[in-house]
Specification:
single chain, alpha/beta, ornithine cyclodeaminase, domain 1, Rossmann fold, 2 domains, six-stranded mixed beta sheet, 11 helices, 14 strands
Length: 318
């Protein structure tokens, strides 16, 4: 059985290949049962989340991700997301690979946002604002830069120091980046706004958005959490990764649905419909688009298969 640590997982999941693998999986016949999503109390700290996410392609591969999300791990200088992915043969049940789950999750999440951006952001998008400074943020920056000609990245976080440090990391990848002292000013000039935070209250205001912008909402993964306000929803063409997940797990969709600000028929499509061409994405240069991602088990399976096959080829070629 192949065992991939964090660095090996990262090396086995180049964004170009991963974006294409996820697109193929959304368009295919992957089976994704409802995930197991449990709240785990941590005395004296924020509640943790335990996720079990199974998926399989009949006769080919099957897999399950076990993921622990502990929001207060940052005070211990530990990663917020800890987990592993177990990939098996879909024909024999043989266990094929154990893959580091945090890196897999970060890269497949960023790749999924970039895949949505292919259909929803303007092709000439050059100005990216990254909201949040956690593990996902650098991955999101890199992935968005793979699908659009990004020339400028501005990073906003609650601590300017962390924004500056993340900008330095992006610069090491050859991406022109800087810390943004003002979120409003950055958003008002942005072509793409990508958010990956644990915010419980809206950060992005609809009146800040310029015509033609695209909003990528990745954080706020619980139905009580939000990164955007009602005006953002009202001004945007809304798309989701999966209807089931976004409607029940992401507050940016679940709350407006509950209050009547958004109706189910207002959601213009999910990623499967975009990838297969059953729904259109952006319809004009001036349209504001929004993509809400809560994650889907098929994304993990696509990444796990790519990582396993990449590592297998490298081993065979030695």
């Amino acid at each position: 059985m192949q065992v991939l640590d964090e660095s090996e997982t990262r090396a086995a999941l180049p964004f170009d290949g991963l974006i294409d693998a996820i697109a193929k999986m959304f368009a295919g016949d992957c089976v994704t049962p409802l995930r197991h999503h449990h709240t785990v109390s941590v005395p004296g700290e924020a509640d943790a989340t335990l996720l079990l996410m199974p998926a399989w392609v009949p006769g080919q591969y099957s897999g399950v991700k076990l993921l622990n999300l502990f929001p207060d791990n940052h005070v211990r200088s530990l990663p917020t997301i800890v987990g592993r992915y177990l990939l098996s043969s879909g024909r024999t049940g043989e266990m094929l690979a154990l893959i580091e789950g945090g890196e897999l999750t970060a890269r497949r999440t960023a790749a999924t946002s970039a895949l949505a951006s292919r259909y929803l952001s303007r092709e000439d998008s050059r100005d990216l604002v990254m909201v949040g400074t956690g593990r996902l943020s650098l991955n999101l920056i890199e992935a968005h830069c793979r699908v659009r000609p990004i020339e400028r990245v501005r990073i906003w976080g609650r601590e300017l120091r962390k924004s500056s440090l993340l900008a330095e990391e992006a610069m090491k990848l050859g991406i022109l980046a800087e810390a943004a002292p003002s979120l409003e000013e950055a958003v008002r000039h942005a072509d793409i706004i990508s958010c990956a935070t644990l915010s419980n209250e809206p950060l992005i205001r609809g009146e800040w958005l310029k015509p033609g912008s695209h909003i990528d909402l990745v954080g706020a993964f619980k139905p009580t959490m939000r990164e955007s306000d009602d005006t953002v929803i009202q001004r945007s063409g809304v798309f989701v990764d999966t209807y089931e997940g976004a409607m029940h797990e992401g507050g940016d969709i679940a709350i407006p649905l509950k209050t009547g600000v958004l109706k189910l028929e207002d959601i213009r499509g999910d990623l499967r419909e975009l990838v297969t061409g059953n729904r259109k994405g952006r319809t004009s240069q001036a349209e504001i688009t929004l993509f809400k991602s809560v994650g889907a088990a098929l994304e993990d399976l696509a990444g796990a298969i790519l990582a396993y096959e990449t590592k297998l080829r490298a081993t065979e070629n030695r």
